[in-house]
Amino acid sequence: MAAPITPQPGHSAAQEFLHNLRRLPNTFKDAWLRLGKVPESEREESQATFHNFFLHIHSVRVHVRTLSPTLTLGLGLIAVSSFVLLCITGVLLMVYYKPSTALAYESMKDIHFTVATGRFVRNLHRWSAHVMVLAVFLHMARVFFTASYKKPREFNWLIGLALLVVTLGLSFTGYLLPWDQLAYWAITIGSNIANSPRELTDAVGITEWLDPGGFQRRLLLGANYVGEDALIRFYVLHVFVLPVVLVILVSVHFWRIRKDGGLARPEDPMGGPAEWGAKMRPVFQPLASKTYGLMAVVRGRRPPVNRGPENTMMSWPHLFWAELAVFMLTVLVTLALSFFFDAPLKEIANPAIPENPAKAPWYFLGIQELVSYSAFTGGLVIPLVALLGLALIPFLDRRPGGEGVWFGTPGEGQVAGRSALFGLAAAVGMLAFTVNLGWLRNWFPQIPQLWILFINPGSLLVLLYAGWSLWVLKQKNSVRLAAVALFTCFLVGFTVLTYFATVHRGPNWEFYWWPSQWPVH
Amino acid sequence: MPDNEPAGSRLDPPRVSRRSFLSLASLASFFAAIGVAAAGVFRLPAPTVLPGPMRRTKVGQVEDLPVGSERLFPKENVFVFRDEEGIYAMSAVCTHLGCTVSRTGEGFACPCHGSRFGSAGDVLGGPAPRPLPQLEVTRAADGQLVVLADNEVPAGTRFRV
Description:
The structure holds two protein chains of two kinds. Chain A is mainly alpha-helical. Chain A contains 20 helices and two strands. Chain A has helices at residues 13-22, 24-33, 42-50, 69-72, 75-96, 104-113, 118-145, 154-176, 181-194, 197-204, 212-221, 228-259, 315-340, 362-371, 375-396, 412-437, 440-443, 449-454, 457-476, 479-503, and strands spanning 61-63, 312-314. Chain A has a two-stranded antiparallel ribbon. The N and C termini of chain A lie far apart (88 Å). Chain B is of the alpha+beta class. Chain B has one helix and ten strands, in the order H-E-E-E-E-E-E-E-E-E-E. Chain B has one helix spanning 18-41, and strands at residues 56-60, 70-73, 78-82, 87-91, 102-103, 107-109, 116-118, 123-125, 134-139, 145-153. In chain B, the strands form two sheets. Chain B has a six-stranded antiparallel beta sheet, with no helix packed on it. In chain B, strands 5-6-7-8 form a four-stranded antiparallel beta sheet, with no helix packed on it. Chain B is elongated.
């Protein structure tokens, strides 16, 4: 029954009004915060997590291992933190940025030189993007080397790969917007990579009937040349389509972490609480007189019957302090970088002549090196094969073991070390060979393009890595170790190519030991 | 399930009732309609009209091009040459990924991925899949030479003057 709305005996409506007005701060606080005070018991700590929209994606209790900084290195959270910064600074930049070829560059200059704090906000946007890309790469490596993709986390590994692609897409569409030299030639090259299936269809002679490359290029550019239509398309992708896709994917990613039983970790030993971490943190102490609700139980292979959820601790405050610390660290680092280093802005786009050398940002330089062997193979086939290989890992490696422990499979550290050496030697050897002796076109100028499409330094490197992985599979008789070999090789190969293209490629994409040796003109 | 339950009851319904058939049919037609509409709407980003700059470039009178000369028209990315046999034009757009090539001693070089071409546009090295194409040269009504950038012609073609 509803409370009577008439005032209590002896009180007028005006008195009640005044009474309610005086209590307004308290009633509003109750309505807003639900709990309304700092939690004092475990029950209230559960409520603090459970009743809050932003916190309730976490379970009420987490396993102590989850809070070990050396397990996750906080990389996923760093990526999300930088994405938060990117959203805030991105909206601020949208206030002044004008997506038109005539005005874009001028508006960037305005943001840099005229708009109050514009330069700092743009720096923050650029640096957060760098941090996010780096964190996403490292996060993937962390998940791989702790075998955290294994059943039941296969699907979340796939979501993670999609997030990697969307993150790179956001970076690419982002650095096109200033319409400077980097932007213009990056769009030109990017859209021509989309066009590069023509390299194959031309070589086979079917472009007239089947032209997926031309279709992709027209879809990206909206025209036959790089101009207004292309800029507005990339702008729409950058400020709306890709961020929305990313937010949806991240939500599913988080939700699956919870549903897949929290972060991957080895099984707890039977019996009492594990020693691990018990000394540092207030690990759960089961009470004989208490029963525990379902919300305290996370999914695992061994339900904690009659034992309580041991080795877990309250998310509030321990997990939230840890997360806040990672967020603050990310903000601090990006703020410091933005304070000391300006985001680059090249000269205004000049369709007549590219910069020499015209280099992409660091995360695409490895691909640029591959593209300098063959556009179709290096720009589309090898990245797609690598993505496909990564996607297949959790479905080919089904044997449980080693989850949540760095290099946890027996012999994994050794295989990873040797694979790193092999990957390094193969990549450096291939680069040295190509730089010194050239490739098929230099030896046989009339050779059909089809040969170069299939046989080039990039494809041979991939084959070498695949061969090494198969050899490990045979020698060690373990799918996991073969996957470790392949992943390590690719990681090292990617790093070597990125370093090589950054430091050792100069004007006309020729080899130089140092940028100081580049010819002056 | 108890055996005495009559057929068609709540526990043993007929396989597809009239009502569920109608529900399924309406659902199916709804999704079919949405599918067709979506296919039509997603046609939107594929442009029907491809806007672009004029691909015919006036490059001056024959007298502006003495024998042995070479001119670059940077806005249109076209090289125009004249040798003893006649006048010919070559695209300055790399056939690899579309950067603009620049003149070097041996011919042309691309700054983006290191393709190298000979002075006739033939590929000497690097990733370029095709030679730099020669473009059609013709003469406009006012006597000026015109390069038609959309029309490729075989290497060695000359506009005789």
